Amino acid sequence: MQADIEKFQEFYNVIITFFVTYSFQLMGALIILLLGLLISNRLARLVLTVCEKNNLDITLSKFLASCTKIIIIAIVAIICLGKIGISVTPLVAALGAASLGAGLAMQGLLSNYAAGLNIILTRPFVVGDTIHVQGVTGIVDEVRLAYTILTDEDEVCISIPNRHIAGEIIHNSKAFRVVETTMGIAYDSELSVVRDLLNKELTKMGVTENRQPVIGIDTFGDSGINIAIRFWVPTEKFHRLRMHTNEQLFNALKGAGIQMPYPQTEITILQNTNN
């Protein structure tokens, strides 16, 4: 019992001696840390505000603001450690060795971060663009260092690791997607009348405000001419507008008396004259 009391007394004396010796240093380090956190938050918000005023991409703006905050916090941490008498050099060496081991163990994750940094700096697409990559199409909702988030018309969030985006072929159609449809008309139909009618209907629906539609002959079928129609609609309403527009075009042709031929098959019956 006496031995336990003596050990506790020694521990208590060490704690008291430490606080008496380094109390001012600890208070100074704590004040510096609090001020550093406050300054880092203020400067990060300032950087974000300046970037937004200059119409910089939101993803790049957030990245610059985060980098500013991290750099300031790292500098403040080094100052605080030096203030309480802790040498930073051995700590940096230990962190370097640990980082090397962690880097070998997390190559996939680090490659995602490297690819994310490349995407943010080169900006092959920005938030709000419609991209098609790795067989997936969606609107860019957010670009993070590790992955990119897409959303589609069904409100499904699609997370793609950035290493599967960087270096790949990316189709960026901005805010729109193209609708490609085909409608058959009879060979005796006036092509100019059909084209004008379809253009008029697309204009009435507001589709031509996105981009000028393309209408022309696609192929010559057995029963009629196949007219190809390409028009652009907002990605967030792609399927809904595609189906609605196809219905309106069909009704317009039908209402104008434009014949839409049915597939026809000619069958010849040969009779046996020997019987």
Distance between the termini: 127 Å
The topology string of helices and strands comes to HHHHEEEEEEHEEH
- Shape, principal axes of CA atoms: elongated
CATH-defined architecture of the largest domain: Orthogonal Bundle
Percentage of residues in helical conformation: 40-55%
Low-confidence stretches: none
Strands in their spatial order, largest beta sheet: 4-3-2-1-5
User: Main sheet, how many strands, which sense, barrel?
Assistant: 5 strands, antiparallel
Determine the structural class based on helices, strands and strand pairing. Answer: alpha+beta
What does the average pLDDT come to? 80
Strand content: 15-25%
Which value, in Å, is the CA radius of gyration? Answer: 34 Å
Number of domains: 3
Number of helices: 6
CATH class of the largest domain: Mainly Alpha
Total beta strand runs: 8
* Topology-level CATH name of the largest domain: Helix Hairpins
